[in-house]
UniProtKB/TrEMBL annotation:
Pfam families attached to this UniProt entry: QslA
Species, as recorded: Pseudomonas aeruginosa
Entry protein name: LasR-specific antiactivator QslA domain-containing protein
Superkingdom of origin organism: Bacteria
Residue ranges of domain LasR-specific antiactivator QslA in the record: 36-106
Amino acid sequence: MTLRNGVPSMTKDEKEKTHVDAIIERYKDLMVEIPPADRQPGLSLLWPVPAQPAIDKGVRQAENWLADQIEGQLWTAFAFGRDSLPTPMQKTAFEVAFLTRLQQRLVAARRSG
């Protein structure tokens, strides 16, 4: 906050931060988070419907496959996990999370080696 002619005034950055904070607060129920993994950043997305449980399921399914806790082919872990969800938006959220988690692992492996 600065003083302009003796009157407190917000800087442009402060105004933008306030605006962003207001948007986040308004849409917080529609924000989904894919956590960071393997030294790779996470991902925050604004989703059109509440979908964090589907996101979490996609991440968990990919992690279980990567840890050999799911037998079989990658595509079957993907397809069975996705098909267990009831709505198209939840299925898409699962897909995004599953593939993002695999991408995190692949990028980490590529950078380390």
